Each structure stands twice: as C-alpha cells, then as structure tokens.
Amino acid sequence: MSQPQPETGKNPYAALAEKYDLQIDFRPFIHVEGVDIAEFRSQRVDVATHTAVIMTSKTAVDHYFRIAQECRFEVPTTMKFFCVSEAVAYYLQKYVTYRKRKIFFGKQSIEDLIDSNKKHKKEKFLLPCSDILRESIPQTLEKHQINYTKAVLYRTVASDLSDLENIFYDILVFFSPSGIESLLKNFPGFKQNETKIAAFGPTTAKAIVDNNLRLDVHAPQPQAPSMTMALENFVKEYRKKEKAS
Predict the structure, then answer these.
(1) Counting beta carbons within 10 angstroms of the beta carbon of residue 184, is it exposed (0 to 12), middle (13 to 18) or buried (19 or more)?
(2) How far apart are CA 138 and CA 154, in angstroms?
(3) 12-29+162-244 classified as CATH 3.40.1280.10
(4) What burial class does residue 17 get, using C-beta atoms within 10 Å of its C-beta: 0-12 exposed, 13-18 middle, 19+ buried?
(5) Where are the domains of the chain?
(6) What CATH code would you report for 33-156?
C-alpha cells in the first residue's frame, strides 16, 4: 500500500488481511514538504489582503498557519474559512477557537462549497495548495467567477524507497499519479512482470497506463466502490483460478 498505515488497528485493510491470510505492508511513496518563506514570497502573494481562505485538506490548514506565522501575519478573527469537508473544518480547532470563527464546509468536494462562496462573493479568497493541484478546483472556482488567489505552500515529493530494492510484492496499490512517479523515480528500470498493479481513481489509472504499465485492479467501480472491495474481489477470483488449475 503506497500510503501511510491507518491510525487504528481496526480498519478495512486489517480485516481483509485477516480474512484471506494476507500480508499487507504500508509504505508512503510520497510525502509533503513545505515551501520555505523565500519561495513563498517569490510568488508575490500577500496573505494579509485576503478576507477568506479555501481549505481543501488538513495539510493545507497546517501550511497556511505555518506561512502566516513565518510572515508574522496574525490571522484576524474576521477571517472566513471555507472547507471542503466537515473533517477539515473541525481540524481548524488546532489553530483557532472554532465557535468564534466564520467557518463553512461542504460534504467532500469543491463543488459543495460553491453556494457558500457565491453568498460571499465580495470576499477575496486565498487558496493554499500543493504544487500538484487537481484541475477541477481552479476550474470550478473560475467557472463561478470566484475571486481567488492560488498560493503554493507545500509540494508533493517522492520518498526514498531504496530499501525496497530487493523486496518483491505480489500487488502494488497506488492512490495518486504521484505514487507512480515515485515508483519510477526510485526504480528507473522497473519491470512489472507478474506483479499486479492496483489503482484508485481515474487519474491514477491513467498514469499507470501512460507509463506503459499493466492495470490489474481498478477502483472505484460499481461492484467495488472501495479499494478494499476491489482487492477482495481480485483475491477471490485469483484463488478460484488457482484451485481450478
């Protein structure tokens, strides 16, 4: 699994491993690094001129307040926060007194926030983000004529996987195109051979195919809305074929 291990032992992957006697290792193929203050200033974005912030993740929250501190900008109590989900909104409590702030949140996507954005169209929005930003976010904001400024506060970089060079897995599971980039950066001569590759999401699947790799497991699908369900279906089918042969 090319992502961090779940925080609790009780999770769908642990249940899957126990049910089918599988070994599942978690290893992040990518990690986030904050841009330094010099690089941020080179973008010529003045956080103080913005009256609202669009938060797309907990990571965006962390780096917004980090940069604010490094710029010696005290975030005013009048600052409005628009978060893509309730979980991100509640995460703000790490930095602000929640009940004293104007905080709005959607169900899970930027589209859910548009109605709230439109009701506050006079605000000047700041969008803290990674160097890799889903195109749908700026496209949606621009489509609805939301006045916003993009600020790259952190970047996604490949993790060092050199210790895995001589370790071979039956299935590699990816959740973002960046994970594929990390695999090929760490192992330029990677040959898939009999290794199965699983992808979550259309952009991850596309990255696999674009890099001339074979896509063996893909989620979400109608019959497998989650990665654990897709893997379970694959394992069941694989073991059926093994018995038949």
Answers:
(1) middle
(2) 17
(3) no
(4) middle
(5) 12-29+162-244, 33-156
(6) 3.40.50.10090
Instruction: Determine how many CB atoms are found less than 10 A away from the CB of residue 109.
Output: 15
Residue given tokens 């975030």 in the structure block:
75
CA distance 196 to 199: 10
Q: Which amino acid is at 110?
A: I
Domains 12-29+162-244 and 33-156 share a fold: yes
**DSSP readout, 4-55?**
PPPSSS-SHHHHHHHHHT-------SEEEEEPPHHHHHHTT--GGG-SEEEE
Q: 32 forms bridges with which residues in the sheet?
A: 156
Using DSSP's 3-state secondary structure scheme, residue 153 falls into: strand
Q: Check: pTM over 0.85? Answer yes or no.
A: no
What whole-number distance in Å separates Cα of residue 2 and Cα of residue 21?
Answer: 20
Tens-place pLDDT, residues 66-95: 999 999 999 999 999 999 999 999 999 999
Structure tokens at 188: 């330029």
**Which DSSP symbol is given to 102?**
E
Prior bond of 220 cis (ω within 30°): yes
Question: Are 179 and 27 spatial neighbours (Cβ–Cβ below 8 Å)?
Answer: no
Per-residue pLDDT reduced to its tens digit, 92-126: 999 988 777 899 998 878 988 888 888 998 999 99
